[in-house]
Each structure stands twice: as structure tokens, then as C-alpha cells.
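Sat 14:20. Reprocessing the chain from the morning session after the first attempt stalled halfway. Input below, unchanged.
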Amino acid sequence: MLHLVTPTQGSTSHDRSSDPALRSGIEAARLAAVERYGILDTPPEPAFDHITALAADIFSAPIGVLGFCGTDHVYFKSHHGLDATQAVRGADPAAPVMTPWLRAQFANGFHAGVPLHCPDGHEIGTLCVIDRRSRRVDEQQMRRLRALGGVVTDMLAMRLAARRALAQAEMTSREVDHRAMNSLQFVASLLQLQSRAVMPETAQQLRAAANRVLAVARVHRTFTTIGTTDRVPILDHLRTLCVELSSSVGSEIRLESRDEVEVSKAQVLSIGLIVNELVTNAHKHAGDPISVAFRRVDPTQNELSVLDSGPGLPAGFVPTDAAGKGLGMKVVNALAAQLGGALSATNHPTSHGARFTVTFPVS
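Finished this time. C-alpha cells:
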């Protein structure tokens, strides 16, 4: 006969109520408590595996299990010395949750377990040791098992606090980016408004400044949609950027790339500003259409290119030579250096037009 050793379950008289509606409400609240921890049916983790191994060692038992209670199963977050990954959960709230499964699998064996409770008193799981033969236990062993159960609930509490802190940080980050975007768009509007009241040459410089400010605002708008993640699908950002630049500068701007590439969030601002400068420069000096391309050259290098349909580059043109270059080209060189890469320029190998390329390391 199976020998069960369990401490008081910590249940209230309501848990044992025969009122189906009351028991259903309690069970719904318990399941909600389990869901808050995001622990059900998740992959093994070394920290929990260490706990079940230590629990088994305390009892000199071959099996240690840490399980969390779902609707009708107990899912094993850690199962030291056992291949099974879940057990049918017992329906009797007055008995240990794994009693039916234990009786079926270890009819002549031994089980010692402690329930795991969340702060509001709901039983969310169990930490137990199992043997296929009967044995004796002492209070010191049970005290240590209860202490390990306390370590598990403390770990869960810290995980929950971290999840909530991350959610709050993500909300704050989105709010900051949203406000920054609005402020930058306001500044750009002021610059564009001012450009209408000055001489043509000054107006052109103010519009260029407004476009640079808007490029930064677009990056912050992208950040409001991705939260705190450190990787950004760059083609989505470039696709939106090309549409908006087409409307802004009055040129046809195509995104030629198809395969999505993720880049570091820290690189997005430089990439967006480089495209803004090169597209603006191509519109000024060349004809439509203008093409933007981004690709992963190899596992270590990214390549960003802007191609125009103009007359091509003059002989001896060196994009990294600051002498005689406009502000836009100086900005692109500075941004390429910020990415840890370099700017190069060539005439189109098979057609007319120029190709500006920034190659930089994968972050």
C-alpha cells in the first residue's frame, strides 16, 4: 500500500465545501493565481532541477518532483529521476493533488510532499519525493522539505515581481518614446513653418533640418510598438520610412529587400538617419526611382544600400573625403562610424546611377 506523508494542506473549510458553485469559484481563483506566475507547462530550468535533486538527496530517495496544478493535471516543472512530465490531478480538495496518480504508479511505494501556496492561500503546486518502496521519515527531513518548498515560493514571488517590473518598464518606455515623438514632430513643424518666411537658400536648410528631426521622430514611433525588446525587424521600419520619405521629398522610393533582418535597437536610429540623408541627397542630385536595400551579408556583417537613377558619380569621387562634401555626406560618414562600419560609393555596375553602401557589424 502506498505510504503518504504530507503536512497540513493549509486548506480552509470552504475548500471542502460540498457546494459546487462555491468550489467552482475557489478553483477559478486558484487557477488565476497559478496563471499569474506564468509557470504552467514551461520548459525545465536548472534552478528548479537543483531543488528536486536536493529534496531527493535529503530523503535518500530516487525521485524528486516539483509540480504545478492546472485544471486536471499537475505539470512537472522539474522531475528528477523520473521520465513522466505530468500527472492526473486528484479532484478531492482534502487529499494531496497527486494521490490518484501516485497510487496507480507507486502502489507499494512511498511519497512525502509539501503543498506550495501563494500569498492569498491558494495551493498552486507541490514539492515531493517518491520511492518505489516503503520507508520511514523523520521530522528533520520534513522540515528541510518544507524549507525547500519555501525557496520555491520565494523564487516564484521574485519571478512575478520581475514580470510586473518589466511590464511597467515597457509601459514607461513606450510613454517616453511617444512623448519624444510628439515633441520632435512639433519641432519639425516649427522648422518647416519658419522655412516659409526666409530666403530660399535658408529655407532649404531649414527643411533639411526638419527632415532630420522627423527621421528621429520616426524611430521613436517604431520604439512605441516594440516595447523593451532589444531586437528590431528593420525592414518593417524601412518600409514605413520609404513610404513617408516618398511623400515628403516627392520621389518614388522603393524598398528592394524581402527577407526580414533583425538588428539591435541601438542601431535603428543610425540606420534611419543614414537612409534619410542618402535618399534626400539622391532626390537632390539624381532622378527617380530611388531604391533602398538591406541585407545580412554573412553572420557578422549587415549591408545598407541606397541606389539612384541619376548620371552617376564623377571620376575620383571619394565619399569619405570630407573636403568639399556637404553636411549630409558628413552626417552619413559620422553615422557609419557610429555603427562601427564604413561608407562606400560606386556607379551602378549594369545601369546608370550611383550606389551608396554602408557595411557594418551585426550587433
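Helices lie at 20-37, 46-59, 99-105, 139-195, 200-226, 234-249, 265-285, 327-338.
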